[in-house]
Every structure is written in structure tokens, then in C-alpha cells.
Amino acid sequence: MDERVDHTKINGRVCFCLFVRWSCLIQFIFVCFLGGPVSSSLFLFVFQVVLSHPASSCAFFLTILTSILWFIRDSLKVSSFPHRHVLITGCDSGFGNLLARQLDGRGFRVIAACLTEEGASALSSLASPRLKTLQLDVTDSASIRRAVEAVRAEVGERGLWGLVNNAGRSIPIGPTEWMQLEDFRKVLDVNLIGVIEVTLAFLPLLKKARGRVVNVASILGRLALTGGGYCLSKYGVEAFSDSLRREMQHFGINVSIIEPGFFKTAVTRPDLIEADLRRLWTRLPQDVKDSYGASYINDCKRNVKAQDFSLGILCSPDISKVTWCMSHALTARFPRTRYGAGWDAKFLWIPLSYLPSFVSDFITNLLLPAPKNEKKKKE
């Protein structure tokens, strides 16, 4: 008697059982997140689409499985927070100040670098005695060397677990033709050269701990929306971080890039930007002013105010969305390479940066005022 097994039937039954289990899981997810009749009808629609072709069903379930595995992997954390030291620059206010307090609350040994004594004192009053502060000017090599010695004495043989390069400035910012070389230097020295020099100085301590480097870039490091040194510096931070990540992975150091959208911090204060635009306009030669038109500066001011208004509508004022990304990069067992922070970054600016240049140019030109001569051409 031929007792050969029909493997085709057995494999078919196994696939059917797995399919039924997956379908039950998907239905459970829909019911949990949507609930009621909407979830049932939506599930039936998805179920029918998946059943329509074996290839689509396999692709669908592989996508679901991959997403679940990614979520589990992304949720894994390192341990022993109280034994890990993290240095954060730019802690006087904004992202750095909030991150320092959050990590301190989670038990990390935080070393908060502030530019001013006032900033350091204010932060110390809001944190536990475990948090240490020091003064650091990232544009001053001597200040950086002093900070390295202080941190080395603090961390000992454990080394430095995390370095968060957060210090930055935005102004002078405006049309490129309005700038002088010194205007570019003011921003680049803080946002790019400062990041590079601080990172190089602390690499030996980071290698000792096989730690993390978290560099704060911007969506303006993906899409240059304005002139001045800010966009240049953030593009530079992106490139520096990419090369550093590839080189340091051999030493167990992870490098992550934070790309925030627009948030209300001292860097994006519209009154400071408006005042600096007025300063730049005042020193321009008359022929340059004439080429832009007398109303251009007022258009720029209105544009700054319009951006401030749009920040209140389109972007969250909750800067913890940025510090969550920073914290995840420091605490996750498998930190991400890039973090888009804010809905505008994830769904507007970063996707726009992948589109053809003529598309991004068109949208950018809608947001920025046009010179007088350009208006005449259009007319």
C-alpha cells in the first residue's frame, strides 16, 4: 500500500491555520483601536482585499510581522541608568534644559553644560543634587579643554555614556546677499565647528564607555529655506554625523541625529529674528535696498509674524517631543540613526526634501517674500 504523504495538502492546512490566526489578530487590533461597527466593516474590507491574492496576503502579513518586530526591538532599553554619565551642551534653556531635568529624574548622572552662570544656577535649583553643571562656551577651545578635565574627573574609569551636542544659535539669518562673512562665522562657530571640536575632545571618554553621540541638526539641514549660516551649519552637522557614525561603529559608539521641525524656543523667537533683520537691512548699501524695494523689509517682518502664527497652528509648542527623541537615542538598546521631531518635520519638511528641486523651490517661494524686481517680472 502506498503510504506517501501529500505534503501539498499538509502545507495548505498549515498555511490556512496561520492565516486564520493572523486574521483573528488583525481583527483584534482593529477592534481595540477603532471599536464598534466601524472596526468590523473596515476589517472585512481589509480581509477581502488580503484574500483576493496570495501574494498580497503574504506581503500584508510580512509587513505586520516586521512592524511588530521593529516595535519590540525599538522598545528595548539599556540598564543601569544611575551608573551612566551624560554631558549635554546648551542647557541654559530650551531642549537642553528640559532634557537635563528629564534624564536627572530617570536617574542618569547628568553633566549640564551652560553658557552662563545664571543658566547653571537656575537649572541646579530645579534638579536633584545628582545633576552637575559646568560653564562651557563651545566656541572657546580653552573652555572645552577645561570641560574635558572636569568631566574626566567626574566619570572616572566608566567613561562618558552620552554626549548631546545641543548648543546652537540661529541669527544672523536672512537673505544671503545681506550677509557679511562674519555673520556666517557667528553661526557656524557654534552650530558646526563647536559640535566638531566638542565631539573630538570627548571621543576618548566616549570610546571608554562605548557610548552615544546625539547631534541636534534640523529640518533646515534637509531643506534650505533661508540664507545665513544656520542652514549651512545644519547641513554640516548631518554630514559630520554620518561620517562619524560609520567610523565609530567599529568602536561600539552609536551616533544619532535629531531633526526637529519648528518649535518655540529661544532660537526661533520671532522678535529676535525681526530685530536682526532690521539690523541687516539698515547696513545695506542703497543700491541693494533699491533692488529689493522699500517694502521688502516690511514683507520680511510680516513673514516672520506669519511664521510665528503658523507655529501656533501647525506645530506643537511641546518641546518634549524633541527631548523624547534625544532620550530614546540615549536609552534604547538599538538607537535610531535619525529622529524626525514634530509633525511638521515628519509629514511636511522631510518628505518635501525628497521631492524634485522645482517642487521644493515652488513651495518655498510661496512662503518667502519676493524682491520688487521679481514682482515686476511676474506682472
UniProtKB/TrEMBL annotation:
InterPro entries: NAD(P)-bd_dom_sf, SDR_fam
Keywords for this protein: Membrane, Oxidoreductase, Transmembrane, Transmembrane helix
Pfam families in alphabetical order: adh_short
GO BP annotation list: steroid metabolic process
Gene3D superfamilies membership: NAD(P)-binding Rossmann-like Domain
TM spans (from-to): 12-36, 42-72
Tree of life domain: Eukaryota
One MF term in the entry's GO annotations: oxidoreductase activity
Matching PANTHER family: RETINOL DEHYDROGENASE 7, SHORT-CHAIN DEHYDROGENASE/REDUCTASE FAMILY 9C
Family assignment from sequence similarity: Belongs to the short-chain dehydrogenases/reductases (SDR) family.
Protein name: Retinol dehydrogenase 1
Lineage: Eukaryota, Metazoa, Chordata, Craniata, Vertebrata
